[in-house]
């Protein structure tokens, strides 16, 4: 049946063209954004997963930056301890030289006091970002190392690498100020040596205490080194994890532009055919009109 009020062919062609245009708009959006899922309207569950991963990535990036700072902090502390050890070895050599009856005690003492001042300078200058791991200003420190997302159903957690610090110098109670070997009768303050430390009755204790201080410095250097190894390893892991999450988000929301390009061309062709089909369908009314012409 032919009707001038209703054109079923045109309606069908228009519906087909409308579907094609909607698909074409979606494809063009993917091309312009590079994303197959750019909002919750595209796919609510996948978009939610991607947003959660992106949120975790932000925290991981912050942790990675923090680990870099921690590595620098530990490196400064390690260098400080190593330099202090070298100075203490020089002090030990000078003290041993003072045991020679022909040694110039006054000059040796002056040299030792200069070395003691160097120890103080080394410790006070080992500060980065307001933190110093060798002056006793912090008994311990927690270095941020990881993050666990509780997802809202459990408590989120920050993991740390813990370090107990050793005070080299500070308020007269550092290991370089109160060094005392087991057999020694008295302790030695290597930051402020005096003539009595080189006296015949105490110089052996001074040497023993120097060995004790060097041993303590060596132990602390080992602790700093192992902590720095942990921080470096964790930093590398965080970077690898972040890269993996980036790839995961990409696989969820990124558009495959090779596939999108092919689909775009196909849809453009369908659109042209749809327009042609609609044009043909709209000619039906003209055909009906011709029936009434004389």
Characterize the structure shown.
The chain is mostly helical and 294 residues long. The chain has two domains: 8-34 and 255-286; 44-253, Up-down Bundle (f41 fragment of flagellin, N-terminal domain), CATH 1.20.1330. Helices cover 63% and strands 7% of the residues. The strands form two sheets. Strands 1-2 form a two-stranded antiparallel sheet. Strands 3-4 form a two-stranded antiparallel ribbon. A hairpin with a 2-residue loop joins strand 1 and strand 2. The longest helix is centred in the N-terminal third of the chain and has 55 residues, at 44-98. It is rod-shaped, with a radius of gyration of 39 Å.
Mean pLDDT: 86
- Fraction in beta strands: 5-15%
CATH topology of the largest domain, anyone? f41 fragment of flagellin, N-terminal domain
Radius of gyration: 39 Å
Widest beta sheet: strand line-up: 1-2
Shape: rod-shaped
Provide the number of structural domains: 2
Question: How large is the count of helical segments?
Answer: 6
Q: In a nutshell, what does this entry contain?
A:
Helix content is 63%, strand content 7%.
Topology (SSEs and partners):
Blueprint: H1 8-33, H2 44-98, H3 105-124, E1 127-128, E2 131-132, E3 140-148, E4 157-164, H4 203-253, H5 257-282, H6 284-290
Antiparallel strand pairs: 1-2, 3-4
